[in-house]
Amino acid sequence: MNAREISARDLRERQADILNQIAYKKGTQFIVTRHGKEAAAIISMKEFHLLEKVMEELEEEMDISDAKKAIKETRKRGSKSLNQLAKELGVDV
User: Which of 13, 32, 83, 86 could form a disulfide with 40 if both were Cys (CB 3.0 to 4.6 A apart)?
Assistant: First the structure.
């Protein structure tokens, strides 16, 4: 899928046509430019939801990876019980 570039000015003039292409023509994507620089992307809701799902899965994988690293580091450095920590901090539990 190749996104087509469209200027913000052209988008304003052709918004109904562009939205119809996005909604009904599978794989249609637009990169909106402003003053020659990429400013935004327009994709279908189906692609948006897929992108959201992929991002959530990547976040979960990163969280799992971070948790594994923390567990490994804790095993390497050792850990303390809640009672030991409370005693060191001088608080009651």
Answer: 32
- CA dist 6 and 31 (Å) reads 6
Contact predicate 22/30, CB 8 Å: yes
**CA-based angle 31:51:45, to the nearest 5?**
70
- In total, how many domains does the chain have? 1
Domain containing 65 equals: 4-89
What span, in angstroms and rounded, lies between the C-alpha atoms of 16 and 12? 9
Does this model's pTM top 0.85? My answer is no
- In the numeric block, which tokens belong to residue 78? 């050792």
Q: Where residue 21 sits, what CATH number does that domain have? A: 3.40.1620.10
Per-residue pLDDT of the chain (93 residues; tens, 9 = 90+): 689 999 999 999 999 999 999 999 999 999 999 999 999 999 999 999 999 999 999 999 999 999 999 889 888 888 888 998 899 999 988
